[in-house]
Amino acid sequence: MGLARNIRRVSALTNELKVRIQDAYSAWLEARGFRARRGQREMIAHIARTCAGEPPRLAAIEAGTGTGKTVAYCLAAIPIAEVLEKTLVIASATVALQEQVVDRDLPDLAEGSGLEFNFVLAKGRGRYLCVKRLDQILNGEKQQELGLSEASIVDHSLVWRQMMRDFGEGRWNGELDTWEAGVEDAAWRSVTTDHRGCANRKCGFYAQCPFFKARHALGDADVIVANHDLLLTDYAFGGGVVLPAPESSILIIDEAHHLPDKTQRHFALSARLGATAAWADQVTALAGTLAQRMGRPAALERIAKGLVPDCEALKAGMDTLGVAAAQLPFADRFRGGDPPTEVCRFPHGEVDAGLVEAAAMTAAPLARINGALTELHELLRKAMDGDLDWPNPIEAEDWLAPVGQAEARAAAVRALLEDYSREADGVGPQGRMARWANRTAEDVDLVSAPIEPGQLLNEHVWSHCYAAVATSATLTALGRFERFFERTGLGEAQGVRISSPFDYPNIAVLSVPQMDADPKDVDGHAAEVASLLPDLLALEPSALVLFTSWRQMNQVRDALTGHRVMDAAQFQGERSKQAMLKRHLRRVDAGESSYLMGLASFAEGVDLPGDYCRHVIVVKLPFAVPDDPVDQAIAELAESQGRNPFMEITVPDAALKLVQACGRLIRDDDDHGRITLLDKRVLTKRYGRALLDSLPPFRREFGEQASTKLGSRSVPLGREAP
């Protein structure tokens, strides 16, 4: 009855719909033998109010670990989407959550709730095999002639033949994620395609196409599970390309704290100067060979001849850009990178005058090249449709993919050059931009990335979808939604915090032992961490140790070389993440000690319940890398607005990451353990109290109290040590 009372006041929810949601929840609880959770009821009610309410139908819901978010948003949104004749689209950031929702959560709800719905996992075209391209490779087509792949010294023919055998015999469905043997990126890129290279129904392999088989299933689905990247790609094209049209969709954005960074990366622009100059020669060769193979129709001859001077002008422009870039004050800011990279950032996004002039000069011929390739692509499609009287129209299908790829690359480089050629207040069509140049021994890369992703999300997502709910266990920073709203553009959304049901004071302890080294002293801090780790790891049979930099993790590993603790330790980079996790689980299951040492990728999305993780050790507060060009540009903008970037951006972002890291410990009701923070700044700096207050209410041991208890096991109150 509590759920019904929560949603009673919403007039758009009919009594019949309220009862249906309540009955589905009750049936699911009964089928699973669960008791209703207060937080789960609250979340169902808030989502129902949002999706069935008046515009703007936007909400941000932070629901602590253990709330049961997936069940809550599905039970609320599926019945409402059905009544409103909308499709529910669930978008997550990680493959792990997509698989959990599709393989476990939705089947469980369909079985236990009494709701009738079907669901499907949606993936981008690049996750599917293009059977035609694989057939071309295996039947001797000249890939370099067609421009379908870059030259490679690696022979991938064995894996390509195995793919064709397994696909043809029905042992493989053509999805990259189900190819168990693994495949190198270069090998996969050669046998997939994008929309420009696809002949659709004109393709001789259309009936077998894995992508179109999957896409047909989307049309009948009530619930579609996708990832953030596919959502952004689809909506950037106006929607309805792969996913349903935005106006007919109710969106649930899970793992929503990733969305701003995903948006920045998705809309970033870049161009390598030397590689683009070399590519210009490939374009002229492509057009000339195509005209010859098609029987030299006049339109193709005209385009091929016109591309020659424009590609020469593009090469000259890239050389001029290279000369201008050589004068930039590069700094070795990414020391130890692979390859080692020097960086020159343009303050306030204002590009060096020499680059602005060279970019403007080079953008003109590139625009003509882009236009010619677009015309070429359209002509090929007309030839395939039989609308052109060409000597060899049957060749058109084979050339669609290489021309489409060339067109896409031209458009991407053109966008970067046009962005750089603006004389510069740092603002482009995508809002304020961070701009910088990367230089390696091989090439120079010009980059531009938006620093206000909320503007883009408003333009492409929130303003078009019928309703949207952004959710995660960590949305607030320092207990407030302001930072999340600023980064996502969700200023009109209702922010709701739902507490975790876990009894944190009685099941977990947060320890900050006395330390001498200041974390800013990287070498001294690493040495002290290495000296403390053996005793800390001895407290529990399993642990997750989280570092903020490769440098410090490698220093600690080197300092512990030869110590017996290394027999149970695995360091990120020694093997794949999945291999590390599998070995960790095997050791714990066998009753052996096991310790995982990793960086940010282990601080979230890693689920190690129970004995698999009894101790989380956070080596250093997770402040952003100070020389990241995007973060520097964001701080610069904040300062220009009279704000304090450290207290308003850096500290809130670190608080969010710290909560995520600590969230690796308690995963279910039966969990218990300890968290150790090896950074004394949390006790000595004025921002430390705010960081501590952002964490769940763990039992706390600080300073001498923590240091004197290094020899004791963590035991939840009311339980005995095993």
Judged by helices, strands and strand pairing, the structural class is alpha/beta
Radius of gyration: 28 Å
Q: What percent of residues adopt helix (DSSP H or I)?
A: 40-55%
Instruction: State the strand order across the main sheet.
Output: 3-4-2-5-12-1-13
Q: Can you give the mean pLDDT?
A: 89
**DSSP strand count:** 20
Please describe the biggest sheet, giving its number of strands, its sense, and whether it closes into a barrel.
7 strands, parallel
Low-confidence stretches: 142-153, 717-722
Instruction: Please state roughly what percent of the residues sit in beta strands, choosing from under 5%, 5-15%, 15-25%, 25-35%, 35-45% or over 45%.
Output: 5-15%
Ends apart, CA distance between termini: 41 Å
Tally the helices.
27
Shape: globular
